[in-house]
Here is the input.
Amino acid sequence: MTPPVGYDRILIKLSGEAFADEKASISPAILTSLARQLAAIAGDGVQVGVVVGGGNIFRGTSPQATGMDRSSADSMGMLATVINALALQDAIEKEGVPTRVLSAVAMQELCEPYIRRRAIRHLEKGRIVIFAAGLGEPYFSTDTAAAQRALEINARAILKATKVDGVYDKDPVLHGDARRFEELTYLDALQRGLKVMDATALSLCMDNDLPIIVFDVFAEDNIRRVAAGEPIGTVVRSRPSGGDDGD
Here is the structure.
C-alpha cells in the first residue's frame, strides 16, 4: 500500500512515562491505545521504527539511582526499556501487525540483536521495529538513541510522542501565558534550553538535517495525522518555513 502524503519511514520516540498512568507503571489501556495508533499507520504503508524509554520503571539519572555507579544505573535503565519494548510488541501484535524487538544489549532468548541491515529489512517487510536498550552504552540517553537509530535506518523524521501538544517557551502547567512554538530551528532549541531532546540528540539531528516533530500522543489519531504530514505540534528543523515561531 502506498503511504499517505507525509513520511514513508519514521522513527517514533516514546518516553517510558508515556506507558504509565496513576495506577500502573505500564497501563494496559495506554498500551492498547498506542498499539492501535501504530498499527493504523503501519496499515497505511508507513514504515515504523520505535525507540522506547524506561523512565516509568527505572532511569539511570533518576532519584532512584542516587549513590549508584552511573554505568550500573544506566544498565538498569536499559533493561527497563526492554520491558517496555516487549509489552508494546505484545500489544501491537494483538492488533495483527508483525513486530520485532531489536536490542542493543544481547539477550537472544527475548529479542533479536540490533543489526542495522536486519532492522531495515524488517521495515521493508512491513514489520514495526522496536529498538530497545538505548545504544547499549552508559551515559547516552534514549533521546540520543532515537536520533542515532533514525539516521541509521534513514527515517524521514523523528516523531517525539509526549503528553503535551508541542514545545513551549516555558512550562505550560506552571505558566498560563506559556506560548507554544509551531516551528523552531535546532539552534533556537539549543540556545533557549528548550526540552525538545537532549543536546547530543539535537546536534545529531541538526548535523544531518533530520526534522523532529513534538506532539501529544494521547490526542485521538495524532500519530497517524503527524505521519501523514499534518501540521500537528512543534516542528524542529534547520530553518523555519514562515510559521509562527512563538516570538
In short: Helices lie at 28-43, 70-94, 116-124, 142-152, 186-192, 199-208, 222-227.
